Structures are given as C-alpha cells and as structure tokens.
C-alpha cells in the first residue's frame, strides 16, 4: 500500500512540487569544493545565567572499520576499552577524577550487557566510578553525552566520560523461541522421565536460528526500505544519491590525507597490526556506482550499497566537564555543549526525518538561525535520507502541513556541511556515531574559525536529535 507521505507528495500542487525539487544535483566539479574559512564574527555566546557552562575537553575514537575486518575477533568491550584508553592518553585526566561513565550501544553482547562498566574496569578506571549503558538506536552516543550534560548541569558531578561502541562483526544469534523454551524446561526437569517427555516434543524446525534484523519492530520494515520510499517521496534521483555519496567519500579521503581527522587514535589489535585509520573511505566513480543494483526495493529502488552507510565496528569517547573544573585542572576545552533536543515522529513514513524536525527546535531554543551556524554535522544513514531532509527543511509546504510551522527552516549550505566526510564514508558504528559528530563539529570550528556548530541525526523508531556546539574562545 502506498504510504501516506508518498501519496501526498505525488499529489502536491505544482508550486509545491517545484519547491521540493529545487535542490540542484551535486555536480562532479563541486565534489571537493573547499569551504571558505569562517570568519569569527564575535557572535553572542549562548551562556545562560545561573546555569553551569559545560565543555568538552577532548574526544577520541578508534578507527571505524568495516565489519568483518580487523576487529572481527574482538568483543564490544574491547573496542570501548580502547577508546577509553585513547582518551586517557590524549587528555591525561587522572582516572580517579572521573565521576561517572556512560556509553551508548545498540546491539548488546549478552555477556557484557553493561558494556560501559566492563570497558571502564578494563581501561583501569577506579572500581568506585559508576558506569551505565544506554541505548537509543543511532543516537545512543548522543543520549550518553546529554545524560552526562544533565548530571553536570544539575550539580551532581563535575567530570563525566561519555561514549559509544558497536561491533557488527559479531551479533547475537539466538535459538528459536521453541528451542529456548525447551532448553529452559530441560534445565528444570528433575527426573529422567520428565526429560524424555520434553525431548519427545522436539522437532527439527526448533533448530532454525533467529537472526538479528536491522528492521523496525513496529513496522517490520528495514531502514533501507524506508530510505528508498523517502527518496521516492521527495523525488531524489539515483544520480543525486550517488553524487552525494561520492562527495562524502571524496571529502573524507581529503580530510584523512590532510590529517584533519585528529580524533582518531591508533589501536593495537591483539594478535594483529596496529590500526591507524578508517578503512571504509573509498572514493569511486559515478560510472562504477551506477552499475550497482538496488539493495532493498528491486528492481526499481534507488538505494544501493554505494549510497548507504555500511555495517561498521568502532568506539568513541569524550571527556565532558563543568567549565570551572576544567579550567581549575589546567585544561583548554575545545567547545561548549549547549542546547539540545530530542524529537520523534511516525516510524513508518517519517522514520529518517529526525534532523528536519529537530533542527528548527534547537535553533529556536538557542535563539539562533541557520545563518548563524558555521559547521553542520549530520549523520548520513543514506544519501537519500540526507537529500530528502534537505528538501523537507527547504519546503514551506512541508513545514506547514507536517510540522505545524509557518515557514521552513531552510536547508544547510553544502559548503558548510559535513566537510570532512560523514557516516557514508567514515562508517557508522550505531552506538558511537554521536560522539564523532560532536567532535567533528568542535574540531571544524577550531580549524575554520567558526563559532557555532549544529549536530543532528535520525534514529530507528522515528526519533532524532540535534545539538548546538559553541567553539571555546581561543
């Protein structure tokens, strides 16, 4: 059945259709267009009276790798421990100074369900430092960060480490429910007769495993299907998507070659070589990308492996402090963590539109406009998802009919958008991406001389997040 959103956009008045199609395709000649250095205009600070200023001192991540490569024999807490160790090395923060540790993850390893605690102990943090794990799909690390912000803002703590981890190389595969039930009952059986009676009920189909699926529980639809339908609803062509993906990979390669991805720390994989850089950055050509078949809706879909983020292993960690604590310890913070919002909407038709809904809300909360933002860092789940958000954000019609707003917020200018690559090229470990986004924004502001960054992401369940990052004065 055609979705309501798709039906609506296919039946828009001609003026509205024109507005939604106003986004020009990305030309190959502009793929590597460098953003001009932002001039610091000494804009107002977002400090609020009687509220603690919260800063990120620094943040790191181990290289993000395609699943099934160098991290495949490890466990999630191994990756998280490496990120924490890298953060300790980068910041030299005394381990016993950290008040609390929070990590995000999505697909949990049952042996280490509180991966934050296991990783913290493995990295040598004090066993008196509490730690907990959160999950909120692709914005799990975002939730870890903002939980830490809340703990500091409320005066409960001064120093929090937030991060995230995902290991897609090894995900839990369960026995069928019938098999699990029989095994549990066998464990409780006290006599041979009871055991034989249970075994007699065994059937071969009990052995069919339950494989994890990257799908919405409420709709049973994979995110790739949603991306395909969203691209169709907003008239985002296959060429548009491939060109955007090529832009992401090309900019990531340029940033990697120029040493701009300074948040990456090396990781000596046990029994293997030291990993020093992301391995999913692979600029191709539009001709090669055009040869790939649709990955989800066949044969007419436009989402392919080339314009989608890939399954990724990785971990990230950030040191967040009250400003006065950071200065007392002699740190020069990288950025202030300012206003943030979470949003949620229909997981069927608007699963991936979190940035569209979150962006105007966080800007209004901070008293800013799109023109005030110097660096945009959005999570790239799919090219079609990013471009559909651009069109939705640039449509008065969508704002009025779906968001209850009078006017559009406007789409981010490409010259300020994901200039060092994004999830399509750098990778997307579900639970770790949020920290990467914030550190990319903070590092870009320092490099380019800007003051405000805007981070945004969509997530499963139709949820989303946005945050304002303000550069720390030099």
General description of the model:
- With 474 residues, this protein is α+β, with helices and mostly antiparallel strands.
- The protein is 35% helix and 16% strand.
- The strands form two sheets. Strands 1, 2, 3, 4, 5, 8, 9, 10, 11 and 12 form a ten-stranded mixed β-sheet that branches. The protein has a two-stranded antiparallel sheet with strand order 6-7.
- Strand 6 and strand 7 (274-275) form a beta hairpin.
- Helix 1 (4-10) runs parallel beside helix 8, helix 3 packs across helix 4 and helix 8 (223-233) packs across helix 13.
- The longest helix is centred in the middle third of the chain and has 20 residues, at 238-257.
- The protein is globular and about 80 Å long.
- The termini are far apart.
Major β-sheet profile: 10 strands, mixed
- How would you sum up the global shape? globular
> What would you report as the Rg, rounded to the nearest angstrom?
23 Å
Q: Quick one: how many beta strands?
A: 12
């Amino acid at each position: 059945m055609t979705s309501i959103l798709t039906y609506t956009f296919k039946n828009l008045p001609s003026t509205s259709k024109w507005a939604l199609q106003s986004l020009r395709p990305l030309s190959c000649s502009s793929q590597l267009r460098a953003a001009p250095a932002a001039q610091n205009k000494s804009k107002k600070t977002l400090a609020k009276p009687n509220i603690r200023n919260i800063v990120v001192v620094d943040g790191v991540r181990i290289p993000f790798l395609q699943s099934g490569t160098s991290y495949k024999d490890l466990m999630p807490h191994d990756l998280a421990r490496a990120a924490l160790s890298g953060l300790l090395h980068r910041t030299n923060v005394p381990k016993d100074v950290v008040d609390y540790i929070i990590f995000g993850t999505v697909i949990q390893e049952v042996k280490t369900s509180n991966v934050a605690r296991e990783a913290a102990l493995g990295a040598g943090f004090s066993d008196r430092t509490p730690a907990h794990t959160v999950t909120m799909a692709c914005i799990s690390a975002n939730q870890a960060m903002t939980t830490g912000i809340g703990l500091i803002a409320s005066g409960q703590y001064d120093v929090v480490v937030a991060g995230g981890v995902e290991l897609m190389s090894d995900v839990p595969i369960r026995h069928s429910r019938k098999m699990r039930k029989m095994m549990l009952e066998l464990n409780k059986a006290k006599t041979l007769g009871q055991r034989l009676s249970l075994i007699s009920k065994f059937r071969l189909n009990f052995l069919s495993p339950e494989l994890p699926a990257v799908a919405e529980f409420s709709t049973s639809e994979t995110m790739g299907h949603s991306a395909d339908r969203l691209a169709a609803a907003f008239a985002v062509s296959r060429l548009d998507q491939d060109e955007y993906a090529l832009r992401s990979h090309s900019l990531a390669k340029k940033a990697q070659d120029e040493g701009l991805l300074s948040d990456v720390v090396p990781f000596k994989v046990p029994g293997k070589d030291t990993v020093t850089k992301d391995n999913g950055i692979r600029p191709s050509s539009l001709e090669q990308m055009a040869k790939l078949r649709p990955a989800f809706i066949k044969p007419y879909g436009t989402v392919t492996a080339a314009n989608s983020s890939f399954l990724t292993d990785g971990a990230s960690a950030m040191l967040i402090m009250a400003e006065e604590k950071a200065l007392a310890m002699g740190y020069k913070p990288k950025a202030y963590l300012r206003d943030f919002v979470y949003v949620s909407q229909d997981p069927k038709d608007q699963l991936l539109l979190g940035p569209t809904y979150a962006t105007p809300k966080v800007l209004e909360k901070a008293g800013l406009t799109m023109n005030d933002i110097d660096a945009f860092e959005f999570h790239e789940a799919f090219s079609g998802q990013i471009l559909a958000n651009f069109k939705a954000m640039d449509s008065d019609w969508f704002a009025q009919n779906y968001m209850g707003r009078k006017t559009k917020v406007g789409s981010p200018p490409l010259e300020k958008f994901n200039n060092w690559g994004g999830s399509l090229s750098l990778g997307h470990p579900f639970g770790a991406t949020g920290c990467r986004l914030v550190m990319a924004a903070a590092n870009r502001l320092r490099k380019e001389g800007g003051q405000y960054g805007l981070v945004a992401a969509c997530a499963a369940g139709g949820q989303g997040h946005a945050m304002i990052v303000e550069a720390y004065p030099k």
